[in-house]
Model the fold of this input.
Amino acid sequence: MLAATLTWAGFVDQASEARTISEGLRRRDVAILHKLVECYQYRLTRYLLYLTGRQELAEDLFQETWLRVLERGSQFDGRSRFEPWLFSIARNLTMDHFRRKKMISLDSPAGAHQENNSSSGAQQEPLGANLADRNRPSPFELAARGEDAARLAQAMIVLAPIYREVLVLRFQEQLSLQEVARVIGAPVPTVSSRLRRGLEALRAHLEVATPEGGTDVH
Amino acid sequence: MSTDLHAQARTLLDRGDAPGISPAEQAWLHEHLRQCDPCRCYAELTARAIQGLSSFSFTVDPGLAARTQAALTRRAQQMEAERARRSMYLRGFALACLFTVIGSLLAWPGWAYVARRAQLAPWEWQLGFSLFWVLPSASIAMLLLVGMALGNGRSNVRSLA
Ligand SMILES: [Zn+2]
Done:
């Protein structure tokens, strides 16, 4: 975590790390911001890739997110971890972007409809033009290392962003269910339900290769 | 074994090793997986899915951080310049207000004295005082306030762009 990567800067534990970041942001300390950009470079880009499915867009939103952090830095009170706050800013900017482009919102009725569907509900065409350019490999296909990952990359292409984002936040960012709920602005049961649907879709793709796997609910 | 127990095991598995799972729940899950083949397969498949996600290695443009840092430095300088300009306008406005109020109070007896010597009617020198003393300093204060508001509007538009 960041605490480990920033110990050289004098951040001892997560609470003091959050406080240091909060004070730095309130002072608009560019040096702290530069360190944060370096530390979160991969993780924030990865989250934005899961959300948008597009490399260039993720990079644009990455830059916009940090400018917003600079402008709204005083709103981070340092009482909770920095990551959920950072990811919620990135998410809001992504939603604004899709709204401007008149694409379906991440939390639009279309998303809710997908959630209410049965097990295949998570596997629908996501966000308008998202991942639609099939002439180019998706970022997930490019990122896949190994056989399972290649299969999961295929699942990611058809998985709606609302499911992809809870998967990355929970299993890659190791955020708690409550923190994920704070990032996406939804209650914890919704997060659990999206996680279940997301994992269901991934398992379905892995199962194709191992048909003997018995996963029927009794 | 009841359907509820399998569903419960799978719900726990789908949450990942969340801190919300108590040691008792973990022990129960462990025991259930030992006895139940379908749930064990489910657990293995879930673990493979999560591991598979972790094995993704995304490419990040090596220049992205440097570009972002440069943009942050520029924006911070811009914000600092805007802050300095706002504070200058604010100080000017406060000074103009102070000058209008305190200056008027101090100048009033002087004007009255000169007017008496010049044998002016009260309405004449009072109008003169308003036109040539109060109005100019109040106008300057207002102009500074308008300048500050216009500057704020411009910076809001810039941050939205
Ligand atoms: Zn079972």
Remarks:
- The radius of gyration of chain A is 18 Å.
- Residues 1-5, 109-130, 213-218 of chain A have pLDDT under 50 and may be disordered.
- Residues B 6, 9, 32, 36, 38-39 surround zinc ion (CB under 6 Å).
